[in-house]
Design goal:
There is one protein chain. The protein folds into two domains: about 240 residues, no CATH class; about 90 residues, no CATH class. About 70% of the residues lie in helices and about 0% in strands. It is built from 18 helices and four strands. Helix 2 packs across helix 15, helix 4 crosses helix 15 and helix 5 packs antiparallel against helix 6. It is globular and about 70 Å long. It starts with a helix and ends with a helix.
Length: about 375
């Protein structure tokens, strides 16, 4: 090959839209990685940890609905099984790593068994019937969690202790005087350890999902989503692939449920099995962009910040516009759900394929 032919060979350029999405995701990742030092108040730490957990939960659901076209309402059931498994063991055996590993492991195994049963029995039927089956299974699990109060704490749930490493009184590092070492004026104690337990666990699971969608299996899943009959005609066992990804998503959701239980030190139906969580997951997938995985990062951040800070922002805006007729009433913090709905409608209108999906498609257009 001559120098002229080499120079004439076109270089493959990454579309601008895709670069923008990756830049946004990288910026969010860096903020989460240094969150204990950037956001020092308790509320911000809780929001950052929740974002990490929900990124994994939403991305695992995107494996189903975005990459395979499977509509399931049982994702919170698997999430709750992992959380309850770890929480019950921590309550019964005390704050030890053996309780987390054995109890959380039992919850993950239970999620896997249920996923196999639901997958084998229901994935052969049409999508709407499968969705109804998963909805029924999730409803049964929610009822069981509420009624088996001796084990689950019922509607009120229950609290427990996490390992001593995650206690705020635990000193990760000490200075010469025996006091907890501070970095950028942040005490390096068990609270920081607990956050990085959440962050690193979420990061590992997220990278695992990126690897799955980049593998040949991910290509087959997309083929099944686009045309199930054609994928089966060329030799792929559609039911086997659908069952496999359903089980993988269930295991990932249960695993991050264990992480959530350790971080929160409380487990109950409202934080582990509620249908409100399932609705949030669906909204986050739509906002971020189905079939992108990285869209989960953007969708979770946008939705979480709106849920936690929109009310405060509206309160400030209402005070700033106090002299303008009608506007302070519209910006009343009690109406934050109305404006959250408006925000969602605007996002869907301007980003029909989700924020990440729309930007990637726009950047790829010729």
């Amino acid at each position: 090959m001559t120098a002229a032919s080499i120079s004439a060979t076109p270089t493959r350029r990454v579309p601008a839209g895709r670069l923008a999405v990756y830049a946004i995701v990288l910026a969010i990742g860096l903020c989460l990685a240094f969150a204990p030092f950037l956001f020092t108040d308790v509320r911000a730490a809780e929001v950052a940890a929740r974002i990490c957990i929900f990124i994994v939960l939403v991305a695992s659901y995107d494996l189903l609905i975005g990459y395979t076209g499977i509509v399931s309402f049982a994702h919170t059931m698997f999430f709750g099984l992992g959380a309850y498994g770890a929480a019950i063991a921590l309550k019964a055996w005390g704050p030890g790593w053996d309780a987390i590993l054995l109890g959380g492991g039992a919850g993950v195994v239970a999620a896997l068994v249920l996923a196999v049963l639901i997958g084998l029995l229901s994935l052969r039927v049409k999508a709407i019937f499968f969705a109804m089956v998963t909805l029924a299974a999730a409803s049964v699990m929610l009822v069981l969690a509420s009624q088996l109060s001796d084990i689950t704490g019922g509607e009120d749930g229950f609290t427990y202790q996490a390992p001593r490493l995650f206690s705020p009184a635990f000193k990760l590092f000490e200075d010469a005087d025996g006091k907890v070492l501070r970095l950028f004026d942040v005490a390096l104690n068990g609270k920081v350890a607990a956050y990085y337990f959440v962050f690193l666990s979420s990061l590992v699971l997220f990278l695992l999902m990126l690897r799955i969608v980049a593998s040949p299996m991910g290509t087959v899943l997309e083929a099944i989503r686009e045309n199930e009959m054609r994928a089966e005609a060329i030799g792929y066992k559609v039911v086997a692939y659908r069952t496999a990804i359903f089980c993988i998503a269930a295991v990932i959701a249960a695993t991050i449920g264990v992480v959530r239980a350790v971080w929160l030190k409380y487990t109950g139906p409202e934080v582990a099995l509620s249908f409100h969580i399932m609705i949030d997951i669906l909204l986050m997938v739509v906002i971020g962009g189905m079939g992108t995985i990285v869209g989960a990062v953007i969708g979770v951040v946008v939705m979480s910040l709106a849920q936690f800070y929109l009310k405060d922002l509206m309160e400030v805006a209402a005070e700033a516009t106090a002299g303008i007729p009608l506007l302070p009433d519209l910006l009343n913090p009690d109406r934050w759900l109305l404006w959250l709905g408006v925000l969602f409608i605007l996002l869907v209108y301007f980003f029909p394929a989700g924020i990440a999906g729309t930007l990637m498609n726009k950047g790829s257009a010729r």
